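Lecture 7 notes: from sequence to structure.
We start with the chain below.
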Amino acid sequence: MVALVLGLVVIGGVVSVFLSNQQSYRTNQALADVQDSSRIAFELMARDIRDAGMTGCGNTDRVANVLKTGPNGTNTDWWANWGNAVIGYDNGVADPAVTTGTGLNQRVAGTDSIQLIGADGNGLSIVKHTATAATFFINAATTSIQAGDVVIVCDPDHAAITQVTNYNSNNVSLVHNTGLGTPGNCSKGLGYPTQCTTNGNTYTFTPNSQIAKLAATDWYIGNNPVGGRSLYRIALVNNAGTPTPTPQEMVRDVTDMQITYHQSNGANANAFVGASSITDWLKVDAVQVTLTLQSANLRAGTDGQPIQRIFTATTTLRNRVN
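Predicted structure tokens for the same chain:
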């Protein structure tokens, strides 16, 4: 009987150590997963934030825009407005890029969101621009640009946003004419300032001008397919020739996002403030993002609850600082 009791005590001790080690492993694994997710989330967001407002030539204040849904057209899409190269929406404020609600991919109420527009980092150079024929000849054997893509082209004078209405792989050329495409161009003239007429403000971009796809994104916290929350990114995707804002789930189990901004002038020049306090979005030169992440294991904590951690990172807009 004594031996049996001693054996039970030893077994109980071993089981207790085993369960303790198991819980410790779950907790450490959950912490590692949360930290890895935070690094991925901040790295992905930082790329878009750093490139916001980028034309490729540094002339962000001189941009012509001939898209029919740009500011010079009859209707304006959020992704077609260069004036919104950086703009944020506090919780409770509607974001035109995404619906707030409880449906799949919809923005979670009480969370912030941010829109970012700039040139894609994979740029090309042009050999020649024939303004009368609305054609760019590209200095490359092939490109990833297709008919329907929205592009931004720039030289030392100014930049212009237009939609590619035709791509010719034989001579690697892009056409930016009127009468085709969705939303299409209101003009083939790419001079600054914009004139929304067929020929518009005629301008010939110089050889070696830079051209790249327009990157327009919106970051927000959305409802994911498994009933939880994730960090989402809306990106502009060429869908059969039509630029289509498309939501993508980027990092799962990100439950909240709060964003503050630094404006280089005004009363709050020495502080990061919420979107509602920004008086001039063209002067925003840094963004501070705070994410709340939750472990996928809902019993990873010592209290039998999921582990939550809050992380903050600050990113500078490289196109708005010296």
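Points to note: Residues 33-316 form one domain. The radius of gyration is 25 Å.
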